[in-house]
């Protein structure tokens, strides 16, 4: 199976993976595969290729094109490429995966089993509410002057 960079498909060839046919493969358009392998895997897996973490984004599964897969680099590399510790994220404006750095909006309720769409890892998150106050003058109390 040939593995191609997902972003390169559009940036270098002007086509998305699903636009290719047997006659117009990524290689036909000048895009070289990152790697060719005999290993079998499914969509959604994290792949380490030449020391870089990728997420499997799209895999061809029909007879229109030769079977290949398209990957994109993860934002955070060290969690998957080394034995670095996974740490909780600091307060962020939205939910952020502590494993790969994928960012989600702020509309998610608290969860103990949030599954990351990017890397498939499971984590929990809690919403923190921080109060800040702003004061407005209305009427100054007049002091009594004693001499």
Describe what you observe in this structure.
8% of the residues lie in helices and 22% in strands. It contains two helices and seven strands. It has helices spanning 6-13, 78-81, and strands at 2-5, 35-36, 46-49, 52-59, 68-73, 111-115, 122-125. Strands 2-1-5-4-3 form a five-stranded mixed beta sheet. Strands 6-7 form a two-stranded antiparallel sheet. Strand 4 (52-59) and strand 5 form a beta hairpin. The N and C termini lie far apart (94 Å).
Number of domain modules = 2
**Portion in strands:** 15-25%
State mean pLDDT (0 to 100 scale). Answer: 79
User: Strand order across the biggest sheet?
Assistant: 2-1-5-4-3
Unreliable runs: none
Q: Given the structure, what is the number of helices?
A: 2
Helix content: under 10%
Keywords:
two-stranded antiparallel ribbon, 2 domains, 147 residues, 7 strands, mainly beta, 2 helices
Task: List strands and helices in order, with pairings.
Blueprint: E1 2-5, H1 6-13, E2 35-36, E3 46-49, E4 52-59, E5 68-73, H2 78-81, E6 111-115, E7 122-125
Parallel strand pairs: 1-5
Antiparallel strand pairs: 1-2, 3-4, 4-5, 6-7
